[in-house]
Amino acid sequence: MDSDDWHAAHGLAQPTGVPKMKLGDKLKQTLEELERAKISSLEAQAAAELEKVRRERAALAEWLENIRLDFIDQINASKVPLKKVKNYERETWLKKAISHKAEHQDLWKTFTNFWALEGLDVAVLDGHDGMGTDSWVNLTLKVMPPRPRSAAVNDIGVYNG
């Protein structure tokens, strides 16, 4: 007995605007549509999260590049390079980066490698106003100490063994 027969047998009119489809098929179709919508939603959510990470990474890379350029300008102007970082998120990221635990750690490595090639070490130091009211992180550069020479090599690089 199909839906039409059932309705007729019970003296009921067939609901109007309802396609001739078994209810089980209709429910199956609805569940499939919901599953497709759920998958689409998850894909959209993943895409949004990926875009957020990309934007975050781009902003961080730009911030480090601006610091690099500022430090170059400061050094060329015969000043000691210094960047006061008062943004809590950036402070936290710097502290994680120096302990090799930051997201986008490769950006920090690129930043520090640039300075190492110039004979400089990046220093991240806590700063405060001395009154307990304000604190920040100072980002600066230090000249790398000369590398110790091996005692077994003389001044012209010949081994004295």
Describe the model.
With 161 residues, the protein is an alpha+beta fold. It has a domain at 40-143. The protein is 53% helix and 14% strand. It is built from four helices and three strands; from the N terminus they run H-H-E-H-H-E-E. The protein has helices at 3-9, 23-76, 88-98, 105-117; strands at residues 82-85, 120-128, 135-143. The protein has a three-stranded antiparallel sheet with strand order 1-3-2, covered by helices on one side. A hairpin with a 6-residue loop joins strand 2 and strand 3. The longest helix has 54 residues, at 23-76. It is rod-shaped, with a radius of gyration of 33 Å. It starts with a helix and ends in an 18-residue tail after the last strand. The mean pLDDT is 85.
Key words describing this protein structure:
161 residues, alpha+beta, three-stranded antiparallel β-sheet, 4 helices, 3 strands, 53% helix, rod-shaped
Question: In brief, what are we looking at here?
Answer:
The chain is an alpha+beta fold. Helices cover 53% and strands 14% of the residues.
Derived from helix and strand composition plus strand pairing, the structural class reads alpha+beta
Q: Report the span from N to C terminus.
A: 104 Å
Give the rounded overall mean pLDDT. Answer: 85
**Helix count from the secondary structure assignment:** 4
Low-confidence stretches: none
Note the overall shape: rod-shaped
Helix content: 40-55%
Number of strands: 3
**Helix-strand topology string:** HHEHHEE
Question: How much beta, percentage-wise?
Answer: 5-15%
Provide the gyration radius in Å: 33 Å
Strand order of the largest sheet: 1-3-2
Largest sheet: 3 strands, antiparallel
